[in-house]
Specification:
The complex is a heterodimer of chains A (about 575) and B (about 90).
Chain A: H1 3-24, H2 30-35, H3 42-53, H4 56-69, H5 74-98, H6 103-110, H7 114-146, H8 151-201, H9 206-209, H10 222-232, H11 245-260, H12 263-266, H13 275-311, E1 314-315, H14 321-329, E2 332-334, E3 342-343, E4 357-361, E5 367-369, E6 380-382, H15 386-394, H16 399-437, H17 445-469, H18 473-476, H19 478-498, H20 504-528, H21 548-564, H22 571-581
Chain B: H1 3-34, H2 36-39, E1 43-44, E2 47-48, H3 49-87
Antiparallel strand pairs in B: 1-2
Helix pairs in contact in B: 1-3
Classes of the chains: A mainly alpha (about 575), B mainly alpha (about 90).
């Protein structure tokens, strides 16, 4: 069977599995819909958390980003794993002990204030929608590239699948589909990585292969060879960064505390039976995540090495087929600036913007690029996202591996989308309707459940709209999700647990200061004055991606001083805090 | 739990947590970012040592830290809950 047929088969099989699980695990109460009844095994929850967390960005984009950023890619590797240490030690056990359904639940109750709850809901919705739009786009990309159907239909199919298990099954359905999706995605990620590591170094384990000698007889290790090769082409060494130390520090910190403050991750720890399970489950979650995250830098380095060796100074007519097939889709572009018929790869952009092509091809069969050329020596444009997807082709792996990668990419995108949809719908039906508009007056479990399903449906439709329209700003605002979580929710939860004196006034003003500062800083550099988005204009040399760290600090400082000059917390809240501190 | 015991339990928890968080900070922000250039002078199984900490080592330590915390807290929980039961 060819790769196309196999891909259809794999995707069909994995989707049937997800739907089967959805039917089996239909939620029948709000407890099951919101937190899967609270009896998920810690290992299963660890897998579900890993799938929930690892999105299309982790699966498809991250290795490619590392391939082209080298050491600077560290911010994502440490930032998106180190957050789990904070989550496990500072938040998860106490939130589990608190034992309600949502993050705004905790903030609203701990700060005895509906305003605090609503501020938390607003933060949660902004964070989750920013994030989900990217997932739906990931679904669309995989569908259109591997199954050759329009992005719109790809997104519609993805929405239908998520609808099935998120709306029917709620948290219970999502949890068990995510366990299945984790297995699919990790297998799909590791198999090509083993093959490629074997090809380049003779050692199948990528984590070791990354430090091993290349089998070409040069006696150099992979990283030494990579440094040497790209320095010859004029790049900075792979193992050195080009970002400033303070920026690397700030971005890593913002991503870490942002991760710990992401509602769809936190809520997963409401689903295990006990506080001890919440701690253990965080360990399993990170273990399962680390499997992919320690493989990614190896995949990135191998891909970069392969790319340079295949492409640089190669006659176009002799270049590998994958180069041409990705050029056909427009994710690779080549402009033969020096007219020698060979592809030259150097630092800098080959031309302005993304490639646009004219109808007619050049004599050698390459696509002719219309863009304004730059005057550097680089002739190649390459979209970073193709590295993981093209890897099986680059390494000439069998067709079933290519099909597997497609199924894995979809699993990663769908699992994250479903988790996000759930926290959005929960916060609308539970926090906004049941607790705020209805002022906690009893409404029947059945009508709240119905409302949760309706809000999940609406959220899916909005997410699909974002996915189909593929707004360019989506990619630019992903930093926003982490920055906002870091600057708003994380400090409020942290102080709620560890500072007995922290009161309503302090927490709300802290959240508002952190939120507005971070929003303004990012909006200024991304939308208002993008031409100023360079290190010399940044405060303290910190990029918009890392500004969440400063936002979080401002939040903490504001909350501290305001709380110390206003009334102490009521006695029952003091009791609540003492209660959640002990398992 | 009585107040003095609860305070002792909380203190033990905080002490453990701060200890583990300093390791967390040292391996990631320390080895992986602040001291990366000096550590890169050392070779480690074909890696520059600082680079290894940044892209591999720190992640392994993160996983270990959570399991250590979970196991140590289980012990502390037991210690305090056990003494609770004895009183009853």
């Amino acid at each position: 069977m060819d790769a196309q047929t196999l891909t259809y088969l794999f995707v069909f099989l994995s989707f049937s599995l997800y739907i089967g699980i959805a039917i089996w695990s239909k939620a029948s109460s709000t407890g099951e819909f919101y937190v899967a009844g609270g009896d998920v095994h810690p290992i299963a929850n660890g897998m579900a958390t890993a799938a929930d967390w690892m999105s299309a960005a982790s699966f498809i984009s991250m290795a490619g980003i590392i391939a082209f950023m080298g050491y600077d890619g560290t911010v994502y590797l440490m930032g998106w794993t180190g957050g789990y240490v904070i989550l496990a030690l500072l938040l998860a056990p106490y939130l589990r002990k608190f034992g309600e359904f949502t993050v705004p639940d905790f903030i609203g109750t701990r700060y005895y204030s509906t305003t605090a709850r609503v501020v938390a809901v607003v933060c949660l919705i902004i964070i989750s929608f920013t994030y989900i739009a990217g997932q739906m786009r990931g679904v669309g990309i995989v569908f259109s590239q591997f199954l050759d159907i329009p992005i719109t239909w790809g997104v519609v199919v993805g929405m239908a699948i998520v609808f099935m298990y998120a709306v029917l099954g709620g948290m219970k359905g999502i949890t068990y589909t995510q366990v299945a999706q984790y297995c699919v995605l990790i297998f799909a990620y590791l198999v090509p990585a083993f093959f490629i590591s074997m090809l380049i170094t003779g050692i199948p384990i990528p984590q070791i292969g990354l430090g091993a000698q290349v089998v070409d007889g040069s006696g150099l290790s992979v990283l030494e060879k990579l440094d040497q090769t790209i320095v010859d082409l004029g790049f900075t060494p792979y193992t050195d960064g080009s970002k400033s130390t303070i920026d690397v520090f700030a971005i890593t910190m913002a991503l870490m505390i942002g991760t710990a403050g992401l509602p769809h991750v936190i809520v997963r720890f409401f689903t295990v039976p006990s506080v001890a399970d919440a701690r253990r489950s965080a360990g399993y979650a990170l273990l399962f995540i680390a499997l992919l995250y320690t493989t990614a830098p190896a995949v990135g380095a191998f891909a970069r090495l392969n790319f340079v060796e295949t492409v640089h100074n190669t006659q176009y007519s002799d270049v590998a087929d994958w180069f041409k097939s990705w050029e056909d889709i427009g994710l690779i572009g080549w402009a033969d600036k020096n007219q020698d018929g060979k592809i030259q790869y150097h630092p800098g952009s080959a031309f302005q913007g993304k490639p646009t092509f004219s109808e007619q091809r050049n004599e050698d069969g390459s696509r002719s690029v219309n863009n304004q050329l730059t005057d550097n020596a680089n002739e190649v444009y390459v979209d970073r996202d193709i590295m993981v997807l093209a890897n099986p082709e680059i390494a000439a792996l069998p067709a079933w591996v290519i099909a597997l990668v497609a199924a894995g990419g979809l699993a990663a995108a769908l699992s994250t989308a479903a988790g996000l949809l759930l926290v959005i719908s929960t916060s609308v039906s539970h926090d906004l309707y049941a607790k705020t508009f209805n002022k906690g007056r009893p409404i029947s479990d059945r009508s709240e459940l119905l409302l949760a399903r309706i809000s999940a449906t609406v959220a899916i439709l909005i997410a699909g709209y974002f996915g189909i329209n593929n707004f360019a700003f989506v990619a630019q605002v992903v930093a926003l999700a982490f920055g906002l979580a870091a600057a708003s929710l994380f400090p409020a939860i942290l102080l709620g647990i560890f500072d007995l004196r922290m009161n309503r006034e302090g927490a709300i003003s802290g959240m508002l200061v952190g939120l507005s500062f971070t929003l303004t800083y990012i909006a200024y550099f991304v939308f208002v004055a993008p031409e100023q988005n360079h290190a010399e204009h940044w405060w303290f040399g910190i990029s918009p991606q890392g500004i969440g760290m400063i936002g979080a600090l401002l939040n903490l400082i504001t909350a501290f001083f305001i709380s110390r000059s206003t009334r102490d917390i009521p006695e029952e809240v003091r009791k609540l805090v003492n209660h959640i501190r002990v398992p | 739990m009585e107040e003095h015991k609860r305070n002792a339990y909380w203190k033990a928890n905080i002490k453990l947590m701060l200890g583990l968080l300093s390791i967390w900070f040292l391996v990631s922000f320390g080895f992986g970012i602040l001291f990366v250039d000096s550590l890169n002078q050392i070779q480690f199984f074909g890696f520059k040592f600082g680079f290894w900490w940044a892209q591999q080592g720190s992640i392994y330590v993160f996983v270990a830290l959570i399991f250590i915390y979970s196991a140590a807290m289980k012990k502390i929980d037991k210690q305090y809950q056990n003494s609770d039961e004895e009183q009853e």
